[in-house]
Amino acid sequence: MKLIGSTTSPYVRRTRLLLAGRPYDFVSLDIYGEGRDELRKNNPALKIPVLDDEGQEIYDSRVIARYLGVKLGLAGLSWDQENQLTLIDAANDSCVTMLLSKRSGLDIEQDALFYNLQRERIMTSLRTLSAMVDAGEFTDWQYPSICLFCLIDWLDFRALVDFQGIESLLSFRDHNLQQAMVAETDPRNA
Ligand SMILES: N[C@@H](CCC(=O)N[C@@H](CS)C(=O)NCC(=O)O)C(=O)O
Question: In what order do the strands lie in the sheet with 25-28?
Fold first, then answer.
């Protein structure tokens, strides 16, 4: 198996953590620079991660997790866990949009419909996830916890949100710093 990604993407990191302890090749690309041609060859959606399992390409971390679940015999997700992933992805996608806007020189704090909607979605999703952490819904190190960990650690790394009022998300992150492959995949060491 080959995983195509980058060392900073939270979507790639979640797949690397899911694959902890299993053999696979990791190809790290600079998707906005010299690695873009390689990305074009592997995913017309121009996003990472991409999994290549003996010629079977799988796009999208969530689909990759489903594929690996079947291949490796991992437990499937409940509908509530699917909803957790949807909240995590909603916040993550909006934050990627914010980061790309910032890098494009746009003012992401401006009072404009597009940015207002992203900020609102990020905070409602994160507040709900924080309440779920408080309610003990992320105590097991399973795929939803892995995805939440990667999101929170990436938000902190990129300084994209104010964690005031949702500090339990940072406590959750800190509590899981010793999990397998977490240190090795720290985006700060990219
Ligand atoms: N739904 C996708 C999202 C993947 C994604 O957005 N990855 C980012 C890197 S963090 C990316 O490739 N962005 C490229 C772009 O937006 O142009 C997944 O779960 O794999």
Answer: 25-28, 2-5, 50-53, 56-59
